[in-house]
Automatic annotation (TrEMBL), chain A:
Tagged with keyword Nucleotide-binding: yes
MF annotations from Gene Ontology: GTP binding; GTPase activity
CDD domains according to UniProt: RagA_like
Protein's recorded name: GTP-binding protein
Membership in a protein family: Belongs to the GTR/RAG GTP-binding protein family.
Keywords: GTP-binding, Nucleotide-binding
Signal sequence segment: none
GO cellular component: fungal-type vacuole membrane; Gtr1-Gtr2 GTPase complex; nucleus
A GO biological-process term: positive regulation of TORC1 signaling
Automatic annotation (TrEMBL), chain B:
Gene Ontology annotations of biological process type: cellular response to starvation; negative regulation of autophagy; positive regulation of TORC1 signaling
Name of the protein this chain belongs to: GTP-binding protein
Alphabetical keyword list: GTP-binding, Hydrolase, Membrane, Nucleotide-binding
Lineage: Eukaryota, Fungi, Dikarya, Basidiomycota, Agaricomycotina
Compartment(s): Endomembrane system
GO terms of molecular function: GTP binding; GTPase activity
Catalytic activity line of the entry: GTP + H2O = GDP + phosphate + H(+)
Amino acid sequence: MGASGSGKTSMRSLIFSNNPASLTARLGATIDVEQNHVRFLGDLILNLWDCGGQDAFMDSYLTTQRSTIFQHVGVLIYVFDVETNEMHKDLEYYRDCLDGLRQFSPDAAVFLLVHKMDLVRDKGGTFERKKKELQEQTEKGQGPGQVLTSVTTFGTSIYDESLYRAWSSIVHTLIPNAAVLSKHLTIFAEACSATEVILFERTTFLVIATSNPPSEPEAEPRNDLEPTRYERTSELIKAFKHSCSRVREEFHALEMELPEFSAVLDEMTKNTYVLIIVHDPTIETAALRLNIRMARRKFEELQGLA
Amino acid sequence: MTSTYGATSSASKRTVNSRNSVNGVARTKILLLGQRRSGKTSINEVLFKSLPPKQTFYLETTMRISKHAYDTVIPLEIWDCPGNITVDTLGAPLSQFSALIFVIDIRDLYKQPISKLVEFIIAAYNDNPQLHVEVFVHKAEKLQEDDKIENFRQIQERVQDHLLERECEQMPYNFHLTSVYDHSLHEAFSKVLHKLIHSLPFLEDLLNVFCANSSSPKAFLFDAASRLYVATDASPVDSATHNLCCDYLSMLNAFGPLYQSPTSTPARLRIPAAEPSPDDPAPTETKDRFYPSAAASLHPSAPGTTLTYHLITPQLALLALVPTGVWDGRRGLVEYNVVFFREGVQEICDVEREARGGG
């Protein structure tokens, strides 16, 4: 949800339809609610409700369609245009939405995206200011004693990797066995002498799980890799997949022996890709590929595919 | 914020120049000309400093001639000139230059840029008939497809008319339609570069041999950092394939620093980073150096292709399309061919370096 023109459909088309950012200008306004079923990880079906943001629609969501809209909500994503002139009205709708959620699906997680960050110069400062403003509003909207499960704020832009960061953490909350997957990835990483193993969803290339999950802070300082690497990887692979599709080819697998590291990116199961990063120069990429093939069965079982 | 992108500011440039003159390498000079705000500095920054195209908006106007050195298969020196420069104020005879690139904004159909271009063409005709004159009709992304072709044609026509009037129509020149937002700029600049590389036929022969022996339908020798292709085999260049290779290269370039680990720097990192010192050519040593490589397999249908990447020299990379069956089954042989190709290219580069004197 979010105001008209804030970029909801743009981000949906970028993440789920593999369209490049430059084509989002062609998208028209969303009328009423566009429902999308996105098969994510095979058995998990995301039901995406892209809600048109014009005032008339918003009013009807909050009144007549209230029970339909807010029933069985897993995640509410509210998009704010960072350069909006009508922040006041936006916030009012946002508070009403929170109200609706509390009434019909109190367990829903809430994500706030401050979108179109590419338009502002002072990114850090603007985002902090917006975040604070939104937090105040959230508290006000919730009223005393009633705390919704979680509200997370992200600054995003379709022109860089920040959008993938936000969406990766959104889907992370929806995957039931994320912790189990992480555990097995860690075992797998050890078997490969890998620095890191990352599991991506196939169509969106969003990060599902990694071998060192962010919930274990003590694992982080072990290797000070670039903090934005997951999102950047998603973005790079997506961009390359898109260039492949322009010549009617389909990206399948990638292996690299770069001066800094070796890496293999290959299919793990029929709806996931795995990226193995190895810093040990004696490890051959062929061995990594063999390991992927051997691990495939196990991961299919974990996903309930076998 | 703008000042961060002011890479043309004199301080940074001067150091490049002085080092350049100390080395005493004979650089191939390229003159970049055009009206104010036509996109000369943008072209230079996007190609050689890997500035994201979106950021070119923040570039400042060039006030003085700035010279940029760039080392690829041949050492280049690009003179980025301010818009108001004329043949007389250039401060160097045109005979010094190997190529002249004149940039025209595609929306600028009026007389001024064209008459200026004609002045330069005539001056070149008198001073240096060997000069390659290339006209980049730039900012093609600003217009719709039909207008684009129409304006491109009109500009060509007007230049021709002007030259006819001045009775100077023998001077050869080429037109390219370019934009920093797609691959057209890379393709056009590559074509200019080809004319400046004297060893091009030898590089092409090496590529032909490689393709024939590795059953590869297409192979490019790219300059890895700027993503310009230096040479390709004899089969025609299909721009879709070129674009794919370009994108592949940019992905690999971006991947490198992403998973760099400062704590566990691998032993092999030292090897390709250091350039061979001039007094120690030792070609035997090159064999046990580590060269990065990569392969991406694509499969639309049964046969499938694999895009391979092998670094050849610290600057150059070989990108080849190899049938997946060949790559999976006879990878060793393909890599063996790459080693031979590498030795050939390195030899050519060594000769080139020697001929130009210095390192």
